[in-house]
Design brief:
single chain, 477 residues, alpha+beta, eight-stranded mixed sheet, five-stranded mixed β-barrel, 14 helices, 31% helix
């Protein structure tokens, strides 16, 4: 017989039918009751061993973490909280687990401890739930764009361009850095490197996917990106995944409408397809909230936050309008903001963004037309000479979740901006050249996938929503 997943067994009518189950032991009680999980669901299946039906040597090997192959009859369970159980007919140990050494015992472990054993943490309820939700969200991303006629473009991971102009990039080289080749000036001769020039791990696929938007109209990329920022925080990773759609013939307003539809779709997909895991994560998040001071607790639970996004029309307003609201707000007047709002042009912080969403409008917010001085070189310059057609989507609990803009399609304007910001024209020749041959108005945005998963799962540290986090001082596993 073929193996049946536990998720499926928990939904069928138990009639004593013979089934095969394979999974890992969560607990084993009284030499009789095995709690088995195979990762297909957060729920365990209880397998019941009849007394004296299994030899003592095998019973001793049924320990937490051991992997079992069980054949048995599926019958109604007399116990509360579980519709079925498995009456064991045959049992084989596929993999032993030494109970003295196995680090995941049936008790609550701290998230910090679990990061140290990232190779095993997926076997906990919390990380099993988070990774199932992560999978569902990745699938939903592709489904959303595919259903709307977008094309998925694989942009390069090794690149010579810095899309953000930030400079915090990981260098890629095959040179022997103990004895690097030198040019006549004594500098490292990059012409001797593998690509014959300096290359880095990408910080964004945006510039490359723009080239395909100006041929295929509606495109997106969804891949790994890298930032060499020495940021040891709960919101930063050195390696993370980005979703970046780019669309020809979209202006800033079309861009905002797509971003809103996208986020509503993802939240609704999670509610529809991850209910069991979300209920567990919602309960977990509520317990975590209870440990915080009253004034720091979120007003909305996890599931309520998802519904908050789905059920509310996003409030759209300009940066200048938001600046006036924040400057005149009670927290600003009473100096309760950590970063006071005083002069137009400041970059808004998470506390300001959350105030607009959670206190002032009580709905998700999209801000647009930001000061040019705080935004990237590729954003379209507005006629006022001060702002660019940028937009950010703000969510409860986290602040900015999406950043995007209408892109500058005018060659002269883009070239001037590149020069003003001191960016290397030589490296961006192809990006500038796009504006010479059939340029068109176009827009796009970026959504950090892990930032989305933080929101959907209610986890509070970004290192806990990616299988193997990479951050300063840590590249384990």
């Amino acid at each position: 017989m073929k193996r049946t997943k536990i998720k499926e067994l928990l939904t069928v009518e138990p009639k004593g039918q013979s089934v095969v189950v394979k999974g890992w032991v969560r607990t084993f009680r009284n030499n009789q009751f095995i709690s088995l999980n195979d990762g297909s669901t957060i729920q365990n299946l209880q397998a019941v061993v009849a007394l004296n039906s299994v030899d003592e040597g095998t019973l001793k090997r049924i320990t937490t973490g051991a992997c079992l192959f069980v054949t048995g009859e599926l019958v109604p369970s007399p116990a509360k909280g579980q519709p079925v159980e498995l009456r064991v007919q045959a049992l084989e140990i596929l993999g032993d687990s030494d109970p003295e050494k196995y680090p995941l015992q049936p008790k609550k472990h701290s998230l910090e401890f679990l990061r140290e054993i990232a190779h095993l943490r997926a076997r906990t309820n919390t990380f099993g739930a988070v990774m199932r939700v992560r999978h569902a969200m990745a699938f939903a991303v592709h489904k959303f764009f595919n259903d709307r006629g977008f094309y998925y473009i694989h942009t390069p991971i090794i690149t010579g361009s810095d899309a953000e102009g930030a400079g915090a990039m990981f260098r890629v080289t095959t040179l022997d850095m103990n004895k690097p080749p030198r040019d006549e000036h004594g500098h490292i001769d990059v012409k001797e490197d593998f690509f014959g020039r300096e290359t880095n791990l990408t910080v964004s696929g945006q510039l490359e996917v723009e080239t395909y938007a100006l041929a295929l109209s509606e495109t997106y990329t969804f891949g790994p990106t890298f930032r060499a920022e020495n940021s040891n925080t709960t919101r930063h990773l050195a390696e993370f995944w980005m979703i970046e759609p780019e669309m020809a013939f979209y202006d800033i307003h079309d861009n905002m409408e797509l971003a809103e539809a996208f986020l509503k779709y993802l939240c609704q997909y999670a509610l529809d397809h991850c209910a069991e895991d979300l209920e567990f994560l919602d309960k977990r998040a509520k317990e975590e909230e209870q440990s915080k001071p009253q004034d720091q607790r979120s007003e909305l639970g996890l599931i309520d936050r998802l519904k908050f996004v789905v059920e509310n029309e996003f409030q759209k307003l300009s940066y200048t309008e938001a600046f006036d609201i924040l400057r005149n707000s009670n927290p600003n007047k009473k100096k309760k903001f950590q970063y006071l709002i005083e002069n137009w042009g400041v970059d808004l912080q998470s506390e300001h963004e959350r105030y607009l969403v959670e206190k002032h409008f009580k709905k998700p917010v999209i801000l647009y037309n930001y000061p040019a001085a705080i935004k990237a070189f590729y954003m379209r310059q507005n006629e006022d000479g001060k702002t660019v057609a940028a937009m950010d989507v703000l969510f409860p609990g986290i602040g900015e979740i999406i950043g995007g803009s209408q892109r500058e399609e005018r060659y002269d304007n883009l070239l001037k901006r590149v020069q003003e910001m001191g960016l290397p024209e030589k490296e961006l020749w192809w990006y500038l050249e796009l504006r010479k041959f059939g340029s068109a108005p176009h827009s796009g945005f970026g959504l950090g996938f892990e930032r989305l998963i933080l929101f959907v799962t209610g986890m509070t540290n970004i290192r806990d929503v990616i299988p193997f986090p990479r951050f300063p001082g840590n590249a384990e596993f």
